[in-house]
Amino acid sequence: MSAKNSVWGGLFVGLFVWLIACQQKEEESKVPNILFVIADDLSYPHTGAYGTDWIKTPGFDRVAKEGLLFTRAYTPNAKCSPSRSIIITGRNSWQLEEAANHIPFFPEKFLSHVEVLGNNGYFTGFTGKGWAPGNAGERELTGKRFSDLKMEAPTPFISPIDYAANFEVFLDEKPEEEPFYFWYGSFEPHRAYTYGSGAELGGKTTDMIDKVPPFWPDNDSVRNDLLDYAYETEYFDQHLVKMLATLEKRGLLENTLIVVTSDNGMPFPRVKGQGYEYSNHLPLAIRWGDGIKNPGRVIDDFVSFVDFSPTFLEVGKVDFDSSGMAAFAGKSLIPIFNTEEEGKTDPSRNAVLIGKERHDIGRPDDQGYPIRGIVNEEYTYIHNFETGRWPGGNPETGYLNTDGSPTKTVILNQRRVSGEMKYWNLAFGKRPAEELYDRKKDPYGLNNLALHPEYQNIKNSLKEELFKQLKAQEDPRMFGNGEIFDNYEYAQESQRDFYNRYMKGESFKTGWVNESDFETDFKDK
């Protein structure tokens, strides 16, 4: 080779290496977009990816197939406001002062990860239901609202907001050079439902349901209630399908981290607002074409909603120390993205904490129903702090922590008409101080082992670990100050002191339950 050719060859190699280095540097510095998708009241395992074939969810299933499917994702608090507070702060509800409760005033001291991303170069917005219900003042906890475009909804109780079209408006408004964070908060499958819509509009039949959970009666009313829930779940997913297509069409799909989940379990008795498996165990699928190794994996690690905020800050390259956010209780999911392993990838992700304080009103003096619990692979341990209170709300005020539904009506009428107590006790009855369930032998949590002598060591060990972690997180209940949660004001002034005012004859609108839910001559047997 001549000297001249040698020089040109060296220049070519050098230029090639430089171009590769520049490309790698550009890819490393490219900040991804984030699409956070959250259903309203959807339980695990009610998507196709988990094997439920009477609910069709092609959007969720695609995200799972092209990303990660999580089998053990939990919200620490199974109610709308506190669950969403946990998501946006990365802290457990007992660490969030007023925001531990449902419909609270959101504390000024806690920043949301959406606010922080918005202050660090992200264009942020949401459609549908953001952080709610509650009062956050003038703050945009989930970004700017994009819900103006409407459509003809298939039933009167499905939101007319055209979620997918509003997402396109958001993208059109986004400055070209900025990454985006968008929160798609469906109002479905939250109640109310149009009874029979699953059969009439969804083309479903009751025999499609392979099994009715054994804590409800198995009859046509309950099965049709489940089909209506399925229909609204599918509606939520249809807008996700459209959003995925929009991202793909605009060339944004691969550089967008997509998280699809729900805020809490289905709006049925013994589920939403409680502390059982169907209450807190939720669907979760995550896709990120540019950032997840070996997509298509199934992840069996325990993950908690406190893990979302640290994940989003890391993805957005925001330094926590300068973010202004309070200390996280969770940890980033990025290590799971970066490994190629399936199943259990992190031995430390072996349990999650759950709990609650005040949800819906309806007890004397606006009291809550405080619990704490720990869930691991083998057991669920629940500690009920106020066993004299009604977990689903007082009977005389309509069991207000359980949404009105055909299933609820069936259970209440069984007790009233025939004296059948089995399902009523499971859904509404008072509970002992401690509950312990074998998750493998008793997945529906029907056989409380807490008083069995042979399980005392297991129960005590779980309680010790639970209380140890709660003390480290400065839970007021661990230091004799639990009543603080009952004393925080309910944000809706018209509903405060509901029980005492109602019992004196004042009339209220309680549209989330049926008038027949109120027990006019209830006697605690």
Question: Would you kindly provide a written description of the structure presented here, covering whatever features stand out?
Answer:
This protein has helices spanning 3-29, 58-65, 80-89, 113-118, 163-173, 197-200, 220-249, 277-280, 308-315, 334-338, 406-418, 422-428, 456-472, 484-487, 498-503; strands spanning 33-39, 68-74, 123-128, 144-145, 180-185, 256-262, 281-287, 297-299, 303-304, 351-356, 371-376, 379-384, 434-438. Strands 1, 2, 3, 4, 5, 6, 7, 8 and 9 form a 9-stranded mixed beta sheet that branches. Strands 10-11-12-13 form a 4-stranded antiparallel beta sheet, covered by helices on one side. The radius of gyration is 24 Å and the shape is globular. Helix 5 packs parallel to helix 7. By secondary structure, the protein is an alpha/beta fold. The relative contact order is 0.15. 30% of the residues lie in helices and 13% in strands.
